[in-house]
Every structure is written in structure tokens, then in C-alpha cells.
Amino acid sequence: MKTDEDCIFCKIVAEEIPCFKLYEDEDTLSFMDINPANEGHALVISKEHWRNVHVIPDELISAVSVTAKKIASALETRFSPDGINLVQCNGEGAAQSVQHFHMHVLPRKSGDELKLNWGLAAGDMDRIQEQAAKIASTLQSTG
Ligand code: 5GP
Ligand code: ZN
Fold first, then answer.
1. Which residue owns the Cα nearest ligand 1 atom 15?
2. Cβ atoms within 10 A of the Cβ of 39, count?
3. How many CB atoms lie within 10 A of CB 139?
4. 64 Cβ closer than 6 Å to some ligand 1 atom
5. Across residues 31-51, what is the average pLDDT?
6. In this predicted structure, what is the pLDDT of residue 119?
7. Whole-number percent of the chain with pLDDT over 90
8. How does residue 135 score in pLDDT terms, banded at 50, 70 and 90?
9. Ligand 1 pocket check for 86: Cβ under 6 Å
10. Quick one: pLDDT at residue 107?
11. Which atom of ligand 1 is nearest to the CA of 99?
12. Is 12:48 a contact under the CB 8 Å cutoff?
């Protein structure tokens, strides 16, 4: 499997560093973002290290999209947000900060005025863990 020893997401895939895991299958992994732009902010990545949309193989971007749909559905069921953005950034100008392909599944509140380049602010880990448990249990009960 294609991997990069300096990549933080490859380290999460290899379980060298922890994450609040929501879901995994053969090709993808989903976990909570630790600098959430909003409550319930989740990420979906390909397990293989591919830098961006320009290089990731079609079957893997498809697999990431299917997992993002599952996570969005669980977030919708559990938290009934006013909306959900799927956001995927490529390159410095698009504010890509981790160079391993990933999709943000981002619950929205009406009027939250979230900017697309929202900046990084550390979240409350207890709160993130609590939300992760709710989403993971919803994923288990809805399949
Ligand atoms: P980007 O800015 O590249 O679109 O998104 C990268 C995301 O990865 C950011 O929202 C950031 O908070 C998140 N992130 C960076 N390092 C870690 C980490 O070690 N664990 C988790 N769970 N998320 C991370
Ligand atoms: Zn990587």
C-alpha cells in the first residue's frame, strides 16, 4: 500500500497515532477532525497515501465519496444539522493543510457564517469523543 512516513494521516491509518474513529472499510477510514470547524466535523480519507484529487485513482475517490455519504447520513440522523457540506481541498491556495487526500463532512447551522477557509482551532477532546460515540453507534444501527 502507498504510504508516506512523514504524513500524519498515514500515521493514523497505521495506528501510530490515535483518532476518534467512526468507520473503516478496505479502502477508506473516517474519523473526527480534532480542530472542528463545527460540532460533528468528520474526515474521510483513502487509506493509501495520495496527495490530491489530481493523482488519486478513480476507484479510491469513489470509495471515499461512498464513505462520506455514509458519514453524512449518520450525522443527519444523529444531529439533524441545518445542512452538511462535503469539502475537499487541493493545494495551498485552497487551504489544503494535510497532503493526503481527504474529504471534510461538515455539519452546518443556519447563520453560522462559516468561511470556507475556516482556519484551525483546537477542539475540546471530550466533546469530540462524545460526538464520535454517537455517530459510530448511529452507523452501527443504520448499517
Ligand atoms: P485541510 O486543511 O487539509 O483540508 O484539512 C486537514 C484537516 O485535518 C484539518 O481540518 C485538521 O484539523 C485535521 N487534522 C490535522 N491533523 C490532525 C490529526 O492529527 N488528527 C485529526 N483527527 N485531524 C487532524
Ligand atoms: Zn498519507
1. 98
2. 16
3. 19
4. no
5. 97
6. 83
7. 94
8. very high
9. no
10. 97
11. 3
12. no
* Residue tagged active-site, from 41, 100, 102, 104: 102
**Does the C-beta of 98 come closer than 6 Å to ligand 1?**
yes
Phi/psi for 50 (5° steps) reads: -130, 135
Residue carrying C-alpha cell 500515521: 11
The answer, yes or no, to whether any atom of ligand 1 lies below 6 A from the CB of 89, is yes
Decide if pLDDT at 143 tops 80: no
Return the domain boundaries, the chain.
8-136
- Fold classified for 8-136: HIT family, subunit A (3.30.428)
Question: Residue 92: exposed, middle, or buried by beta-carbon count in 10 A (0-12, 13-18, 19+)?
Answer: exposed
71 Cα to the center of ligand 1, angstroms: 17
Q: Cα of 26 to ligand 1 centre, how many Å?
A: 21
H runs (alpha helix) in the chain: 8-13, 58-79, 125-142
Dihedral angle sign, alpha carbons of residues 60, 62, 63, 68: positive
Active site residue 54: no
